[in-house]
Please model this.
Amino acid sequence: MPTEKALNSVKEVTDLFASSSIIIATEYRGISVSDMDLFRASLRSNNCNFKIVKNTFARLAADESGKPELKEFMSGPVGFLTSSNDPALATKTLVQHAEKNSLPVVIVGGWLDGDILDEAKIKQLSKLPSKDELISKMMSSMNSPIYGLVSVMQGPIRGLTTVLSRYVDNNKQGE
Model:
């Protein structure tokens, strides 16, 4: 008979898996508690979560959340990075923080909107610009023609102003 604590753990992980658009399984052996705290804080700052849970609970949660594909990553001590926001930002945060701090994080695999990802695809995804960066680039490229049009339209006015200014200056010198 499962305990209430076990049922609550499974429910918590089920909810986490169900609400996530990206889930990355990682091995975390060899990471100190202080490094893990910094790692989690870095992830939280980008709306990501890192959860370590027993594989038995995680398998049940994967089935209950409708993502049974995740079970193939559950062997050995595995933690799950989850995010319901920008997948590129989540992977970028994971990969960059692990590299920057020389953490022995091993990416086992991942799940992104129904697709299974291997380590190479996750690292490739981490090199993509985040959603906010893409929106910013798109907005600047959309504004560029407008700025050009405004500049062209101001040209004749600027030219007229220059001609009038020189005319006034010439008349003042001629007096």
